[in-house]
């Protein structure tokens, strides 16, 4: 009988063990699948956080660039209001009163190496056209030399002489002559 009892116990335990054995891999697989899903969600969340941080950094950089550009444009507009240097009759020497203005232009150009300018040389109507073209060029070159000495790159500047061709003020008065003897810094 003892053997019968063992046999009965074995017959009852065997299906239970089989059920447990069959259930274990499914539970393990379910647990592994659950852990994989959690890991995938965490990876997706980390990816979204990194993308959000990248977008925030790009927005901050764009805002900084926009502010710097606005400041540069404001400074440039102020300089364009003071772009003319006047010369004495038949002279191409920069007067002391215009050196501070030219220094401001030079500082701006050094800070903004991509900014280019044209320096226009002008004269009054006295003298021959050839002489006035040469004098206008000397005046423009004097401003260019000032800028070069202040550290502005020569690749940022070009020089043109208009001589007497483009007067600022029409007429033959001393005032008109004085207004036409000039060099003008033109931003491109």
From TrEMBL:
Primary localization: membrane
Pfam families: OmpA
Family the entry assigns: Belongs to the Pal lipoprotein family.
Membrane topology: Lipid-anchor
Subcellular location as annotated: Cell outer membrane
Subunit structure: The Tol-Pal system is composed of five core proteins: the inner membrane proteins TolA, TolQ and TolR, the periplasmic protein TolB and the outer membrane protein Pal. They form a network linking the inner and outer membranes and the peptidoglycan layer.
UniProt name for this protein: Peptidoglycan-associated lipoprotein
Organism in which the protein naturally occurs: Agaribacter flavus
Function recorded in the entry: Part of the Tol-Pal system, which plays a role in outer membrane invagination during cell division and is important for maintaining outer membrane integrity.
